[in-house]
Amino acid sequence: MNAPLLTESAPLSATLAVALVVGIGFGFALERAGLGSARRLVAQFYGRDLRVLKVMFSALLVAMLGVFWLSRAGVLDLQALYVPPTWLLPQCVGGFVFGAGLIAAGLCPGTACVAAATGRIDGAFVLLGLFGGMLGCGLLLARWPGFYESTARGAWTLPELLDLPYGAVVAIVVAVALLAFVAAERIERRFA
Amino acid sequence: MSTYVRMSARVRGVLIALALASGALAAIAGSPQPRLAHDEIAAVDLAQRLRDAEPGLLVLDARRDAAVREERLPGALPLHEADAARVAAATLVVIYDDGDGLAADRARTAVGANARRLRGGLRAWHADVLFPVVRSDASARRRQEFETRAALSRYFGGTPRRLEPGETIDRARSRRGC
User: Model pTM?
Assistant: First the structure.
């Protein structure tokens, strides 16, 4: 086993260096996919251009299939991967707030960075709003620890939730993604 | 200003076929864990053999002496204490190290054909045998499977754990976002 690239005991400088390289790669991929444009992002909510869904589902499929098969080949140690914990209610509320912000601003945090980096003024203003929101969220949530810590489910994965073998869940997600691509193409043709 | 190239139908078809094939094969494979090689043994399998006092089983520790003195598998011998006669008399020799498999691989090559490496080494022994965990909201099937492993864990003095909702394994980490 020789992956992930860094263990948890790796020095902070190494972690930050890898994060910088991965972040630049992520930003480059977003920009090349055209997601640095607020018009394109918002177009998905009107059914005219669903490339966000396609790009994100494509990334998800590549990562999921990559993790599965790299682990199966003995190259990646799944136990060494961090699974972010689940808090159902706070994350659902956060998802709605995030979605509302995405519609209002036309950009999400990643694409706002890309937009700002490519010189778009709206991207810079969205980043300002993002940091303001983070500050406000930090100040507000400290007053509601009961909500912030509610409905905790720990590191919860789909195979555990569905009580299915990992490989079966991978196949289901692939099928759902491909169906979503077909549906997206039809919606785009209808509303274009 | 960037230019965006639309993917050709042929490339798209190949990618869809690749995704479908990978997904279907994943369903057939079932687990993301690599299959045990012919010269490997799983920690739970070894634990069952040790519990059953399988005759002819010899377990060798390929780690450094200081680590062996600190902790070793039940009945395991440090590698340098295994003489040729003992190895020849054994029907199955299992060699382990910390978990990366390098030391165990070297030792296995030296010991010979009837030797197998413990998959995951001492780390797997801890995770799979001594300290297995299950979510308290896991399905009945998973909980039943866990009971078998919990009995094995208790036999070797381990501590099986049921994770309460929200509890994670030894990882007090902050939340991360995208």
Answer: 0.81
